[in-house]
Amino acid sequence: MNSPAQPTRRAARALIADDERLMREQLRARLAEVWPELEIVAEARNGLEAVELTEAHKPELVFLDIRMPGMTGVEAARAIAQLPVDEDDAQGWSGCEIVFITAYDQYAIEAFEKGVVDYVLKPAERERLLVTVERIRKRLAQRAGGAPGGGDDAPSPAALQQLLQKLAARMDPARAPQLRWIQATVGQNIQMIPVDEVLFFISDEKYTRVQTATLEALIRKPIKELVEELDAELFWQIHRSTLVNTKFIAGVSRDLRGRQLVAVRGHPEKLEVSRSFTGLFKGM
């Protein structure tokens, strides 16, 4: 009796973003040598195109030039991290691995040594690219195998957010997180709320709810903007629509459906951790 056929795994797909055409062509050629089955689904000339094409094609891997005109590679990576994923489909798109293309070692080496993102120095050399390819293939295999958070070798979403925030601030100090107060609507009044008193933010289509231990308020700023303006070491994104203040995390549990739930000190509500962010609490 023949055993049932195993589903064939789709070849990994990648996007290359670099404002220099020759650099894109050179990287494409090198990748064809070291990873011939990798499918290059699109090429972008700037950060904005990279975000749009990532949303359209949903590749497993994105190569981003760290410095591009307009939206930089770091800014594009932060925007890509906010793209919606297929939370209800175990086989759906769960985000992508980021590899920076850079001539600026001081940025890349910090990222590489922390294991949060990988990098390729310009011009791409075969030996160094092989190291990157092996790391990425391992992570993609762990993702495909259903390892929580992408596997032990995968960076946590919080670590990625923190590193991207630091890189963005280093490249443009004026864009460092500076939000210290929230101007929010409480009933019929406008109130100034210190950011460090906020337990969590939860957004819906129109408003974002600001919750402290003593009050609930509303603002119109979406989560994706708050992520850029708040300290990523203090506020962790645990869901596409939720940020939680790490100072107030009391614990993490699982419900009967296996979902992770965050308990918050000072408030009875439990916050769901989406599939994309389960790596934040490895071992739970």
Please give a structural write-up.
By secondary structure, the protein is of the alpha/beta class. Helices cover 30% and strands 28% of the residues. The protein has seven helices and 15 strands. A five-stranded parallel β-sheet has the order 2-1-3-4-5, with helices on both faces. Helix 3 (73-81) links the parallel strand 3 (61-65) and strand 4 (97-102).
Q: Can you lay out the helices and strands and say which pair or pack?
A:
Elements: E1 13-17, H1 21-34, E2 39-44, H2 47-57, E3 61-65, H3 73-81, E4 97-102, H4 105-114, E5 118-121, H5 126-144, H6 157-171, E6 181-186, E7 189-194, E8 198-203, E9 208-212, E10 216-219, H7 223-229, E11 235-239, E12 242-245, E13 249-254, E14 260-264, E15 267-273
Parallel strand pairs: 1-2, 1-3, 3-4, 4-5
Antiparallel strand pairs: 6-7, 8-9, 8-12, 9-10, 11-12, 13-14, 14-15
Helix pairs in contact: 1-5, 2-3, 3-6
